[in-house]
Design brief:
The complex is a heterodimer of chains A (308) and B (261). Chain A is α/β, with parallel strands linked by helices. Chain A is built from 10 helices and 14 strands. Chain A is globular and about 75 Å long. Classes of the chains: A alpha/beta (308), B mainly alpha (261).
Chain lengths: 308, 261
């Protein structure tokens, strides 16, 4: 699959009087494939927004290279097919929703009122098209932000904290829209702190800390726990003693045998032995890490590594 | 071009809704309206002093509006992050800057038009003399070029200094530029001046835009002082202003293009 975003040793250095030169983004190697939802995670000040700004050529890299949809960053042509929703965006408050979309569409050289109206419908704001932005709630402002980001039918969307500070209903609405974007074949690059949200919708993630990528990969692989939990019933308590699997935790409670074991060939052998003993398999569940745990552990490890 | 027009129109929309600008405008309009209330003047003095005072109010109010409007033009867009959504579209930085400038002078022009209307109406109601209205109306046109130049100075500084510093820098430059003829005559043309001071005065004379070119109230007020060739003077001063505006905008674009926002 072609890369929607590719960076090689992308670096942004700021000079500070007290700290000297600080690499806010440090030799970043990022690879985002077309058509995926990519989560860009990191604690505050990790370099997420700086990276996005460099990819959008709002700020300039100190060194390194980057490509967006195959074009070098800074190439204005690519801005015709990408879009950006910044964190806590502000829109001209005196404009109505429709006027705002018309303004942004004129930046693309378009003046398509019908398209703007359709986009308002898509983000459930058709009924509020004539209200001014100052009358919009936070969730409505975020939805109008998503509508403006769709004006040019983008191939790649950069969303910086798209669900930040929204109530659960607005969360769900935004999440559904993002999932629709993927179904339409768009690439979505999300920078977020909402880890449960990212876990639900992202295909791949990268964790950035202190300007460096410390983890990057498919979410399913990163969260792969490598263990299974097997629950069975209708077994004698003595069956507990027959389970001899290395590194397994075996317990018996409420007439149920619970085996927490590493994945491998022993799983089939255990299932076979339960069936032979006329037991009933209740469930076999692959144990998955939570993204939150992975994130916290990764950030902690890198912080400790840096402190040493 | 459409991007510049769109950015300019939003700048006008924002400017005419900014409370601080509207308050300054209202104060200017108020002073223009009460200026005739000053009594104790002979009819001849009344005409001269009144015209002078009202043009002075118009010019001062326009200068304050021009500076207050433009010093915040770029920093506000950065602070509110509206610039990010705009620059992520296929909009070049120079288009953004030019759009903001054009919008600012359009808004300024609208406000000056309103003040000029009040000025001319007040003058007419008091003097009942239509014959001089055309002559008086020339001054706001010159002031508009002057204020467009002042706005370009403030836009230039706004690409690299804070609004507060910009306020004093632009205001200071406007003050020096308005006194330029006097300063230059005092230092450069005096036989007793030190050559080094003369050189500095000459450099300032070249670098600082001569805002005094546009202060044409004296010939308007005083029929004894006439501009030899009004059309040529108007063309020269407009071309001079446009030249400086272009230089300042090019400088601003070059700086803004490298700036991290």
């Amino acid at each position: 699959m072609a890369a929607a975003i590719e960076t090689k040793k992308l670096t942004k250095t700021y000079k500070s009087r007290s700290l000297g030169a600080v690499n806010v983004v440090d030799e970043l190697d990022l690879h985002v494939e077309e058509g995926e939802i990519f989560g860009f995670l990191g604690p505050n000040g990790a370099g997420k927004t700086t990276t996005i700004k460099m990819l959008l050529s709002i700020i300039y890299p100190t060194s390194g290279e980057g490509w967006v949809l195959g074009r070098e960053i800074g190439d204005m042509e690519v801005h015709k097919v990408i879009s950006y929703l910044p964190e806590r965006p502000y829109y001209y408050e005196y404009m109505t929703g429709l006027e705002l979309l018309m303004f942004y569409s004129s930046l693309f050289g378009m003046k398509d009122v019908e398209r703007c109206k359709k986009l308002l419908e898509r983000v459930n704001l058709a009924g509020d098209a004539s209200k001014t932005i100052s009358q919009y709630s936070k969730g409505m402002q975020q939805r109008i932000g998503l509508a403006q980001s769709l004006l040019n039918d983008p191939k790649l969307l950069f969303l910086d904290e798209p669900t930040g500070g929204l109530d659960p209903i607005a969360h769900t609405e935004i999440r559904d829209l993002i999932l629709q974007f993927r179904d339409e074949g768009r690439t979505v690059f999300i920078s977020s702190h909402e880890l449960s949200e990212v876990e639900r919708i992202c295909d791949r993630v990268a964790i950035i800390n202190r300007g460096k990528i410390v983890r990057q990969g498919k979410l399913s692989e990163l969260l792969h726990g490598g263990r299974f939990e097997v629950i069975a019933e209708n077994l004698d308590r003595s069956f507990e003693d027959t389970v001899k699997i290395p590194d397994a935790i075996v317990s018996y409670a409420n007439g149920r045998l619970i085996v927490d074991m590493p994945e491998g060939e022993d799983l089939n052998a255990l299932i076979d032995s339960i069936r032979s003993a006329k037991g009933t398999i209740v469930s076999v569940i692959p144990r998955r890490k939570r993204l939150e745990d992975l994130f916290v552990q990764t950030v902690r490890d890198t912080n400790q590594g840096a402190a040493r | 071009m459409r991007a510049i027009v769109a950015i300019a129109s939003t700048t006008v929309g924002e400017a005419i809704r900014r409370k601080v600008l509207l308050i300054i405008l209202l104060i200017g309009l108020l002073f223009l309206s009460i200026a005739p209330g000053l009594g104790g003047l002979s009819p001849r003095q009344e005409t001269t002093v009144l015209t002078s005072m009202m043009l002075g109010i118009l010019q001062l109010t326009s200068a304050v509006i021009a500076i207050v409007l433009t010093v915040y033009l770029i920093p506000t867009e950065i602070e509110r992050r509206t610039i990010y959504t705009i620059l992520s579209k296929p909009v070049q930085r120079w288009q953004f800057l030019v759009g903001k400038y054009v919008g600012a002078i359009l808004a300024l022009g609208l406000m000056m038009l309103l003040m000029s209307g009040v000025l001319l109406l007040t003058y007419y109601l008091l003097q009942r003399d239509v014959s001089r209205l055309g002559e008086i109306a020339k001054a706001p046109l010159f002031y508009f070029v002057q204020m467009s130049l002042l706005a370009a100075v403030a836009v230039f500084f706004s690409t690299f200094v804070s609004p507060l510093v910009n306020f004093f820098l632009s205001g200071g430059l406007y003050f020096i530029g308005s006194m330029l003829n006097t300063i230059y005559d005092t230092f450069a043309n005096s036989p007793t001046t030190n050559p080094a001071v003369k050189a500095v005065a000459s450099v300032i004379n070249v670098i600082v835009p001569n805002f005094a070119n546009y202060n044409i109230q004296n010939p308007i007020i005083n029929p004894g002082q006439q501009i030899q060739n009004p059309t040529a003077y108007a063309l020269f001063t407009t071309a001079y202003g446009v030249f400086y505006i272009l230089i300042l905008l090019i400088g601003a674009i070059l700086i803004f293009d490298k700036r991290e926002v």
